[in-house]
Design brief:
Ribosomal Protein S5, domain 2; 4 helices; globular; alpha+beta
Length: 130
């Protein structure tokens, strides 16, 4: 049996996802800055710390089945993980799934997230990554 704490330590930092804690969700919603896409809505808050963090919300009202909710969460987390290096530092995001995410492939969700990030002016045009 593999020790869970040991496997988390061995995963390199870029592969792990920086998640928001419960109190940080309130801070993001208090700033009232949101951008909507076809598959998700993104709420944005500038933060003092230099890392990029994300929180994910999927409503039971929109997605009745747990399988659909979990798939939507996985797709949004993966879209953030693959593109977070291109986002400006010092932002906290809350991703909220919309009904348009159902039946989409990962590449489509990533493209939608990139469009949202560009529209919200969160996208870095340079290639220097922090």
């Amino acid at each position: 049996m593999v020790d869970a704490t040991r496997t988390i330590e061995t995963v390199s930092k870029p592969l792990r996802l920086n998640r928001l804690v419960a109190a940080q969700y309130k801070v993001v919603f208090a700033q009232k800055r949101s951008v909507y896409g076809q598959t998700m809505a993104v709420w944005i808050a500038a933060s003092v710390d230099a890392d990029r963090k994300v929180g994910v919300i999927v409503s039971k009202r929109t997605f009745r089945d747990a399988v659909d909710r979990n798939r939507a969460k996985r797709l949004m987390r993966e879209a953030f993980r693959l593109t977070c290096a291109r986002l400006i530092p010092g932002v906290h995001l809350v991703l909220i799934a919309r009904s348009g995410i159902q039946g989409k492939k990962c590449a489509e969700v990533i493209r939608d997230f990139e469009r949202i990030a560009k529209r919200a002016q969160l996208w870095q045009l340079t290639t220097d990554v922090q």
